[in-house]
Amino acid sequence: MGRRELREHIFRLLFRAEFHPAEEMSEQETFYLDYLEGLEDKDREYIQDKVEAIRELMAELDARVDEVIDKWKTDRMARVDLTIIRLAVYEMTCDEDVPTGVAINEAVELAKRYGSDQSPAFINAVLAKLA
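Request: output the structure for the sequence above.
Response:
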């Protein structure tokens, strides 16, 4: 499975966390990953590790975003946009394998697919301030 596809699955699982209590997320992850056909063990582990790492750092990631934006604090953002931003900020600051430009570009691509018409520009602007 390619990085883009892995990133999309990570996004989907992180987005689920917005609607389920923390104690249910292990079950949600298992359900989601078991549904994927042909998922290799290494890809499953990669997805699970990254989701867990981002969930553990969520407050810190949100604080970084709140420092650079004026009008839209994280608690007021659309959940899709916030989830994409969290993933990208994590990749920009904690994942040495992902260059900053790639993290931003991939976030914009996710926004085009899952966000509103304004999401790509909004996410690009927020991430550019963090770069």
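The mean pLDDT is 92.
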